[in-house]
Amino acid sequence: MSELVTGEAVALELRPAKLPSRALAVVIDLIVAFTVYIVVTMGIVASTASLDDAAAAAVAVATFVLVLVGVPIAVETLSHGRSLGKLACGLRVVRDDGGPIRFRHALVRGAVGVVEILMTFGVVACIASLVSERGRRLGDVFAGTLVVRERVPAGPARFVPPPPPWLVGRFAGLDLSGVPDGLWLAVRSYLTRMGQLDPQVGWAMAERLAGDLAACTGAPAPQDVPPAAYLAAVVHERQSRDVQRAFGGGAAGVGPVGGPGPVYPGAGAPVGQPVGPAVEAAPPTLDVAPTRPREDEGPGTGFVPPA
User: Fold this and answer.
1) Tens digits of per-residue pLDDT, 15-41?
2) 3-state secondary structure string, 188-225?
3) CB–CB of 184/95 below 8 Å?
4) Side-chain half-sphere of 198: how many Cα atoms within 13 Å?
C-alpha cells in the first residue's frame, strides 16, 4: 500500500499496480489498437491503390504512427490516465505526486512504449516492471508517472486544510512552475498530519518546507504568516489553478473540502475584521501553532514526510 495525493489535494492510499494487472491492461489496449489499425489500413489500401510504392509506404508508416502511437497518447491525455485496458482492470496513470497526468507525461510514456513494448514485444517493459519496487516501466520512470489501482477498499481520506480566508488569492502572482512534484507531496503530507506532530518538530518542518517552497517560487515567504498557513495558502493556489485549467474560470476559488476552512491562530486577520469568534469555532485538529513551540514540550511522533 502506498499513499498518494491527488491533484485535488486529497490523500489516497492506493496500491501500485504490479506486472500481471498492467500486462492484462496492455494486452487489451493492444488488441483494440491493432483492430483499429487493421480496419484503417484496409480502408487506406482500398483508397490509395493507385499510388506508387514510395507513397504507399509513407502512408503505411503514417498510419502506424497515428493509430498505434498517437491515438493511445491522446486517449491517455483526455482520460487523465485511463485507457480502455486500464479502465477494465481498474488502473490509472498518475504523476509521482498523485496528480493527474498531462500531455507531456502521456507523450513520454507513449514514445518510450514504442521501444519497450512494441519493438521488443514487451520484454523490456516486463523486466523493468519486475525490477521496480512500484512496478514502473521505463516510460513511467522517464515521464515521472506511476500506475496505481483505483479499485481498492476505501479508507478515511485526509484533506489538506484550506488556508485562512484572508490568505486566499494573496499568492496568485507566484510562479509555481519550478516547484518539483516531490516537494508538493512533502507539503501535502505535512499539512494532512500536522495535528499529529510534536509542536517543535512540526514548526521546524513547516519552516523548512516553507523555505524550500519560497526558493522554488523565487519569492520569499511573508514574515507575518505562520509557515503552515503559508504552505496551505500556496497549495490552495495551485489547486485553484488546476481547477481553472480543468473546468474553466467558474470553478476558481473553491476550497479543498467545499466548506469554510479552519482559522489559523496567530496568523492575524484583515484590518477591521474580528477574529475572536472564528477562533472558537475552528476545528481543533487542524489548528496551526500560533507561536514557536517551547523547548520544554515533550517529544511527539517525529513524523518525517517522504522525500
Assistant:
1) 788 888 899 999 999 999 999 999 988
2) HHHHHHHHHCCHHHHHHHHHHHHHHHHHHHCCCCCCCC
3) no
4) 14
